[in-house]
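Entry for the shared binder. Reason: the reviewer on the internal report wants the predicted structure included alongside the sequence.
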Amino acid sequence: MKHIPKPGWAAKAAHLALFLLLAFNPVTAPDRAAAQQQTFEPRIEEPEEFPDFPGREDTFYSCSACHNFSLVARQSMSRERWDGILNLMAERHGMAEVKGKDREAILDYLEKAFPQSDAPRGWQNPFLNR
């Protein structure tokens, strides 16, 4: 059986030199200016971008006071689930509690604009038998 020696300091130094050459070589180093251009820029949303039903503006401004309205638009829930979400936002996140006609108007809008769907959402396991 042939004995294979462990790499010595010369081999380790050569690996380090190669790493430094590749990491800091202007040809192979990542373009920092290009990386800065790819940063996230928030986009201003307008109520008119979303389904036109009564209560759209009230719902839009109520929700977008804390987060992007696109987050709401990606959901599809029953009226009961939307109602629970309003409770959750008030209890856990400090949203002002919405009551009475205002709450009904928001729930009416959410139920019509983003109704419950049986369509699969999010990542689906391709190996599941459906």
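Summary line for the report: Residues 47-113 form a domain with the Cytochrome Bc1 Complex; Chain D, domain 2 fold (CATH 1.10.760.10).
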